[in-house]
Write a structure and sequence with these properties.
globular; 15 helices; Na+/H+ antiporter like fold; about 350 residues; mainly alpha
């Protein structure tokens, strides 16, 4: 989805409105639809039906490990990726997680957040919505080349969530002062987390071997990218609760401070220092800008449910930072001139 460079001001304004309407419609329309389905009790006799929870979980798994690998494979097969981008972007993805996690731990101690809440602040600060919302925004703004960079940025993210984020959050929730520990067991139990990475590698091999690309795959991918984002939004809407937000004003402020101030203030100067504005005609830096302003990931809602710390806080942080996209996405579109 690219925009002609020789367009008139009127055409540009109309296309920008269409882009915004599409992004916000897919992301928030699906979210609201999921919320209404749960409130109307279509999946059970009560608003907190376990069937709704099960449908939500299965949709997330299908989107991440069945549907998403197809456009990932396509993006790496057809896109001309700069070697510097191939090397640097996965490292930038890890760095963004480290900044979010480190900031959360520092602010937890500074504000004396109790362990069961501190663990939720930690996962909310560390886990970022890179693929579903970030991927959708970048795809609509910059097309397949941008989407390929998103997948590079995300290359080691799932691995880091399971190997570091999950066990560390558990230790924080238990009140341990030195919580860092790796957990290979989680990776062995969930080998499917490597599926997106494998699809990326296969697409890259096809690209390097110059295997002729299949045009119909582009059409399939152009449908799957917004479909995945919509299904993700719908699945989260099925388990969304608004009533608890006011109970976590301090913690939500900390989470938003990390997501929308600390991470961008550190990541963007690093991108400038390593010369990203010169990579792929500036596209690499623009993608980094978008990904540096993304909200809490839906994955942040899993550890609280698994280990028993504050799920309502993680849910509230997700809702507030995601709703902030209503302001952030138009600001990014205007700033980046997408």
């Amino acid at each position: 989805m690219s925009v002609p460079k020789d367009r008139s001001a009127g055409d540009s304004g109309g296309q920008n409105v269409s882009k915004l309407a599409f992004i916000l419609g897919v992301s928030f329309g699906s979210l609201i639809l999921g919320y209404l389905v749960r409130r109307l009790r279509l999946f059970g006799s009560s608003p907190d039906s376990t069937l709704a929870d099960s449908v939500s979980k299965n949709l997330k798994l299908i989107c991440t490990f069945v549907l998403s690998p197809i456009p990932i494979f396509d993006a790496f097969w057809r896109t001309s990726l700069n070697l510097q981008g191939l090397v640097v972007f996965p490292l930038l993805g890890l760095l963004s997680l480290a900044i979010g996690a480190g900031s959360a731990m520092l602010l937890n101690r500074l504000f004396h957040i109790p362990p069961h809440r501190a663990a939720s602040v930690f996962v909310s600060g560390m886990f970022t919505n890179i693929v579903s919302f970030g991927g959708l925004v970048v795809y609509v703004f910059f097309g397949y080349e941008g989407y390929g960079l998103v997948q590079l940025f995300n290359m080691f993210v799932a691995f880091t969530y399971y190997a570091v984020g999950f066990p560390v959050s558990e230790q924080i929730g238990l009140g341990r002062r030195n919580p860092f520990a790796l957990s290979p067991k989680l990776l062995v139990e969930r080998p499917y987390i490597f599926i997106p990475m494998i699809s990326m590698m296969i697409g890259l091999v096809f690209n390097l071997l110059r295997v002729p690309h299949l045009p119909p795959l582009d059409r399939i991918s152009s449908l799957l990218i917004p479909t995945v984002a919509g299904l993700m939004g719908f699945s989260i809407g099925l388990t969304m609760f608004f009533g608890k937000i006011r109970d976590y004003r301090r913690e939500i402020t900390i989470i938003a401070f990390i997501k929308f101030l600390i991470v961008p203030l550190l990541m963007l100067p690093i991108g400038l220092l390593i010369g990203l504005p010169r990579v792929m005609d500036g596209l690499a830096f623009k993608v980094l800008v978008v990904l540096s302003f993304m909200p809490v990931a839906f994955n942040a809602l899993v550890p609280p449910a698994l280990y028993g710390f504050d799920l309502d806080l993680a849910n509230s942080g997700w809702i507030v930072t995601t709703l902030a996209l209503i302001v952030i996405v138009p600001a990014l579109l205007f700033t980046l001139g997408a």
